[in-house]
Amino acid sequence: MTNSPLTPGIVPGRLPADEIARGFSDLHPPMDQHEAQVAADRCYFCHDAPCMTACPTSIDIPLFIRQISTGTPEAAAKTIFDQNILGGMCARVCPTETLCEEACVRMTAEGDPVEIGRLQRHATDTLMAKNTHPYARAAATGKTVAVVGAGPAGLACAHRLAMKGHDVVMFDARPKPGGLNEFGIAAYKSTNDFAQKEVDWLLSIGGIKVETGRALGSGLDLNQLQQDYDAVFLGIGLAGVNALGVPGADLDGVADAVDFISDLRQSDDLSKLPVGRNVVVIGGGMTAVDAAVQSRLLGADSVTIAYRRGADRMGASQFERDLAASKGVRILTNLQPVAVHGDGAATEMELEYTTEEGSRLIGTGETVRIPADQVFRAIGQALEGELAGLEIRKGKIAVGENGRTTLPGVWAGGDCALGGEDLTVTAVAQGRDAAEDIHTHLTN
After folding, report:
1. H-type helices in 204-256, by residue range?
2. What is the pLDDT of residues 26-37, one digit of tens each?
3. What pLDDT is recorded for position 2?
4. In CATH, what number does 241-377 get?
5. Same fold? 144-239+383-443, 241-377
């Protein structure tokens, strides 16, 4: 993201480098062995554990916590990886406060759940630090599978297929694999290049070839993939960004939040990343919060999230909203964009107050203007690529059981597939389950 002559307010170095480094340090620092033992001892090891039911990947949470409490974190990690091969990243980015920890009996009884996410990180980090892979490939089947998209769903699918003895070729449009984990998550949630280290560790099982810079419609043809491979899995995510659709949306200073986060994640020096003085983020999901918080951590004077519906309809969890508020981000609800104002470059954002009548959102006609030299769109993403022959519903690929699409021999999962929750952990579960179904299909 470069600073245009028309946007003098978007500049790098608003804060000293050491202050930026502190702001982008680990959001949830790792536990040491003693902390993990104490935290694990709080678990009731429920027989019918509600935390396990709440986990999209169905990790046996009581078992892995018991293994930590008995001093065997490597065994705990294996329990986690059996269900979620990206358990290290999920421990960092999962909204545990609305999943396993919200369901924890300690949460119900005391309002203070077992720290399942941090315990999961302790276990997975311990095993991964040994630089060994806990799985070996089965005997070669002679089958080859194309996996398009090297994000969480594609990686989980590719790993499970490789473990079953199939050869996998993974394609991705980006210059390196990782998908959302590498390019789309706030830097303070995944520090020290963990996303890339996790990918390298996952690929060490063998049998997976990665080809970058290749996307459907740009070097890849779905019909040709069907002919060349025994099965195809699509984990292409949602690469397109919905348009703002208001006057001034093309002014300098207006950009996609996902591009901002990607630039930030790939930056070697955050003190050189330009940020506005007055930043407005349009949207109410995790991407909006990540863009807003990181703008503040880079030194923006004022950062505002504007969401068109009520706070209870925001996609971002209460924890994420509280985090944003703690960093000085202002969250305004029931406001929708009307126009971006400025002479060549953004200077103000005009918003209209809204009300809801049932499911209908209605503008009241009352508007407000707030200073904005940088405006980020975080209003949802859309499918991209050549998808001829696939049924598309509600802007996503329609899938049946275990991710089967309407095309023979083609499966899909993750954000691009209908029915997902746009979470890393859900994408992992869908990729894993699709791989099991592909394996059954190829070996029966």
Report:
1. 222-228
2. 999 999 999 999
3. 47
4. 3.50.50.60
5. yes
| The dihedral sign for the CA sequence 52, 314, 318, 182 | positive
125 contacts: CB under 8 Å, gap ≥ 6: 30, 88
Q: Which fold has domain 33-128?
A: Fumarate Reductase Iron-sulfur Protein; Chain B, domain 2 (1.10.1060)
φ, ψ (nearest 5 deg) of residue 366: -85, 130
Residues 6+ away with beta carbon under 8 Å from 129: none
Helix orientation angle between 116-128 and 33-40, rounded to the nearest 10 degrees: 140
Looking only at the bridges linking them, the beta strands covering 396-397 and 392-393 are: antiparallel
Q: How many angstroms separate the CA atoms of 391 and 402, rounded?
A: 16
308: left (phi over 0), alpha (psi -120 to 50) or beta: alpha
Strand partners, 392: 397
Q: Is 250 exposed, middle or buried (0-12, 13-18, 19+ CB in 10 A)?
A: exposed
Residue 12's alpha-carbon distances to 99, 109, 141, 274, 408, in angstroms, are: 37, 48, 53, 4, 50
* Listed residue (22, 434, 64) closest to 235, CA to CA: 434
* pLDDT exceeds 90 at position 419: no
Check whether domain 144-239+383-443 has CATH 3.50.50.60, yes or no = yes
Model pLDDT for residues 194-220, shown as the tens digit of each residue: 999 999 999 999 999 999 999 998 889
User: d(Cα 389, Cα 406) in Å, to the nearest integer?
Assistant: 8
Q: Characterize the bridge pairing of strands 360-371 and 348-357.
A: antiparallel
Could you state, in order of their start, the residue ranges of all structural domains in the chain?
A: 33-128, 144-239+383-443, 241-377
Pick the closest to residue 414 from 443, 389, 444, 381 (CA basis): 381
- Tens of pLDDT, residue by residue over 380-405, are 888 988 788 999 999 999 999 999 99
